[in-house]
Every structure is written in structure tokens, then in C-alpha cells.
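Hi all, posting the design record for the shared folder.

TITLE: backbone redesign
STEP: 1 of 1
STRUCTURE INPUT:
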């Protein structure tokens, strides 16, 4: 049955309009970053004469904060995957008692408000000396990354054919060898998916950064932007330039890992 000519045009127009509406803040952010400094953005709709002084100011003031966010986000990914991957494999493949209860607990942690976790961590960190430290922020951000990674990877690992694992065991591979040489390579899409979202959780974190850091020694970019607004409200081009630079790593990561994320998110849906 042929589709009537022009039948899809209204949907296309609506899709383009919605896409333009969604991307307009991004366009305005980039446009504002290329305008001259001032209390307000006085430039036109397109920067015909771009001014890069905002980026120079942002790099000077926020460069260290960008590095801090990168270290914390990568550390959170490494810690979360290192903890969640074997846990997900055990929950998916081993006949353990209380598996459903453990999974319920993992899901329950996703429902706890972050402010509750942040307040509890502040008291513990104060006693342990983890305030204003990279390790403290990595552990805090992992409270969101670990449960999510367990849920994603367990669903994927359950879909791995049992025959593949049994064939490796027949060849003499132990459980650790099966896990490292068979399960992890097959679960690449799920691992990348968990890593991407864990990175995004940590990169965009504001609440833990605000609660667990009190000095400029360790300050993620989200907190830097927040404090930057109060100190430089007459330099909106620098504020916009900082937000552009803070958005680039996440955008590049999503573009590069897009096909892996799509496959990993749906890999465990059909067994």
C-alpha cells in the first residue's frame, strides 16, 4: 500500500519546529558567548563580529574547575563500573538467595532524594576528613552511578545465552576467566551505556558539590558556574562561554557513544 504523497510533511514540519525549539537555548548560549562583555547581551541574532574574550576569561577563571569535574566524573565511572559489573553478573547468573530483595533495595536507592544522601554524607565526611576531596566527590557521585549500572548490566547479562558460558566452562575456564574473557566482551554495549550515564550523572552534579565542598581546592564546574554568576554578572559572555565549555564533553561523549547506548539500553529487553 502506497503512502499518499505529502502525507508525512506535517509530521516533518512539526518535528523540525520542536527540534528548533529544543535547540534554541543552545544556540542562544553559543551566540551569547561570542558577544562583547556587558551587563546584558546586546548582540544580534548572529555574531557577525565574534568576540572570544569571554572564552579567554572563562578559561582563566574556570579551567581548573573543568579539570576537577573531569577527574571526578572519570573516577566515578571507574569506581561505579568496578563495583557494579561483578555485582550485576552475580545477580544475573548465580542462584543466590534474596536476589529479588537485593534488586528491590537497588531500585529503592534510586528513589531516595539526593539532598537526604548529601546531608548524611556531610556528617560522615566531616568525621572521615573527606570534605573538599576528589575521593569524597567520586564516592558521592557513585551513589547514583552504581545502582543504575547494576540495573542496566544485569538486564543485559541475563540475555547472554547460557550455552556460551557453558562452552567456556567445558574448555576449562573458571568463573573469573569466564567473566573476564567471555561476559565482559559480550557486554560491551551495556558497559558503555552504564559508563556514559554515570559520567553524565557526575559531570552534571550540583548538589553534592555544593554540600561537600567548602573551599576552592576542589570545585566542579557546576559549582563554579553558580558562584561565577554572583561574582561576574557584568560579564555574561564569560558566563555563556563557561556553559558552552561545560557542555562540550557531555555532547561529544553522547555523539561518539550513541549507537552503543542505544544497543545497550535495549539489549536486555528481548532474550
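Okay, here is what came back for every position:
SEQUENCE:
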Amino acid at each position: 500500500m502506497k503512502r499518499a504523497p505529502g502525507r508525512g510533511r506535517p509530521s516533518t514540519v512539526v518535528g523540525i519546529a520542536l527540534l528548533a525549539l529544543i535547540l534554541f537555548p543552545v544556540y542562544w548560549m553559543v551566540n551569547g558567548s561570542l558577544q562583547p562583555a556587558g551587563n546584558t547581551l546586546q548582540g544580534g541574532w548572529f555574531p557577525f563580529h565574534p568576540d572570544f574574550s569571554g572564552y579567554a576569561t572563562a578559561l582563566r577563571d574556570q579551567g581548573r574547575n573543568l579539570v576537577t569535574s573531569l577527574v571526578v566524573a572519570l573516577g566515578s565511572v571507574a569506581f561505579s563500573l568496578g563495583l557494579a559489573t561483578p555485582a550485576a553478573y552475580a545477580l544475573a547468573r548465580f542462584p543466590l538467595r534474596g536476589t529479588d530483595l537485593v534488586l528491590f533495595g537497588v531500585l529503592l536507592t534510586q528513589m531516595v532524594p539526593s539532598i537526604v544522601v548529601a546531608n548524611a554524607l556531610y556528617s560522615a565526611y566531616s568525621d572521615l576528613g573527606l570534605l573538599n576531596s576528589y575521593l569524597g566527590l567520586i564516592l558521592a557521585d557513585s551513589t547514583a552511578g552504581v545502582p543504575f549500572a547494576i540495573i542496566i548490566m544485569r538486564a543485559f547479562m541475563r540475555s547472554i545465552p547460557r550455552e556460551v558460558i557453558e562452552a567456556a566452562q567445558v574448555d576449562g575456564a573458571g568463573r573469573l576467566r569466564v567473566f573476564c574473557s567471555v561476559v565482559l566482551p559480550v557486554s560491551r554495549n551495556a558497559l558503555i551505556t552504564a559508563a556514559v550515564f554515570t559520567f553524565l550523572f557526575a559531570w552534571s552534579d550540583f548538589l553534592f558539590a555544593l554540600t561537600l565542598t567548602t573551599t576552592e581546592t576542589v570545585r566542579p564546574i557546576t559549582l563554579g558556574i553558580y558562584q561565577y554568576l554572583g561574582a561576574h554578572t557584568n560579564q555574561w559572555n564569560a558566563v555563556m562561554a563557561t556553559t558552552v565549555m561545560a557542555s562540550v564533553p557531555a555532547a561529544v561523549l553522547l555523539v561518539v557513544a550513541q549507537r552503543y547506548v542505544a544497543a545497550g539500553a535495549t539489549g536486555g529487553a528481548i532474550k
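COMMENT: The CA atoms of residues 78 and 215 lie 25 Å apart.
Let me know if anyone wants the other runs.
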